[in-house]
UniProtKB/TrEMBL annotation:
This is AraC family transcriptional regulator. PROSITE patterns: HTH_ARAC_FAMILY_1 (PS00041), HTH_ARAC_FAMILY_2 (PS01124). InterPro entries: AraC-bd, Homeodomain-like_sf, HTH-like, HTH_AraC, HTH_AraC-typ_CS, RmlC-like_jellyroll, Tscrpt_reg_AraC-type_HTH. One of its GO terms (molecular function) is DNA-binding transcription factor activity.
Length: 284
């Protein structure tokens, strides 16, 4: 898939002409057999459930799904009879037309593929529904000013979609950054890790990193690290006869007394009490 920036660049070079705008509530037995698509179109699912099969691959048709169909695709569409589909659609033509180094470039649809094909998940569904609704209303009217308004709304719809994809990418990148630091803590809990260092690793400010880590993981970064260290200390206390100072050092604490306070705060008992209650000996 193109990056949001690349997608915006491609869309900016296109001139799009709307052929039909429509809104449909499907019957419970609605079904369209597999057949080649003849026109470019985009469908926004707003209610119900169904399955769209594109070139042999099945996709869920449900609210929040946007489908871009292109000529030549073999598409089969069906609805769930208990939850009939409702959708908006736009059928369109396009051509590529843009200025490059003071020269105009023209390519028809057969020479340049439309940059969106297949199924996409969108998060700002209410805004997209609003834009489809407005286009549907304007489609029933005529006039040159109305035609200009339709063009503006279509561009706004495309911009909303690109913005949605960018927001999803940022969220995805942020989640990956959080998971990276989580994995790093698991492998390096015995080292002197700092909140500032972890935030820098994630490429975020300390406050933003802390807030997002708590949102995604359920613990603050330091609490998560503390629990990792205490869990490892529990294993050592149960399975070994190491001295408390040695165990504290092996899980990242240079001060055994500080380690004991942290351990009791998390577990409710001191390390020695925990070892006494849980240690595995050769007799059991």
């Amino acid at each position: 898939m193109l990056t949001p920036g690349e997608l915006a660049s491609r869309l900016n070079k296109l001139v799009i002409s709307i052929l039909i705008v429509g809104h449909r509530k499907c019957e419970t037995d609605w079904y369209q057999k597999a057949q080649p698509i003849k026109h470019h179109s985009v469908w926004l699912i707003i209610k119900g459930k169904g399955t769209f099969t594109i070139n042999g691959t099945h996709y869920p048709a449900e609210p929040g799904k946007l489908f871009w169909f292109a000529p030549g695709m073999v598409v089969e569409r069906t609805t769930d009879p208990e939850h009939p589909l409702e959708y908006y659609f736009i059928r369109f033509h396009y051509t590529e037309c843009y200025e490059d180094k003071e020269q105009w470039v023209y390519n028809n649809a057969s020479e340049t593929r439309f940059p969106l094909e297949g199924m996409y998940t969108v998060t700002n569904t209410p805004q997209l529904i609003y834009l489809f609704e407005q286009l549907d209303v304007l489609w029933k009217r005529r006039g040159h000013m109305t035609a200009m308004r339709r063009k503006i709304l279509l561009q706004e719809l495309l911009l909303t979609l690109v913005t949605d994809f960018r927001a999803q990418k940022i969220a995805g990148d942020t989640t990956a950054a959080i998971e990276l630091t989580q994995d790093y803590m698991i492998g390096h809990y015995q080292e002197p890790l700092t909140l500032e260092g972890l935030a820098q690793m994630a490429g975020l400010s300390v406050s933003h990193y802390s807030r997002l880590f708590k949102k995604y993981i359920g613990y603050s970064p330091i609490d998560y690290l503390t629990h990792l260290r205490v869990d490892r200390a529990k294993e050592l206390l149960v399975l070994s006869d190491y001295r408390l100072k040695s165990i504290a050092s092996s899980v990242g604490y240079t001060d055994e007394f500080y380690f004991s306070r942290i351990f009791k705060k998390v577990t409710g008992v001191s390390p020695r009490e925990y070892a006494k209650n849980h240690r595995i000996t050769s007799g059991n």
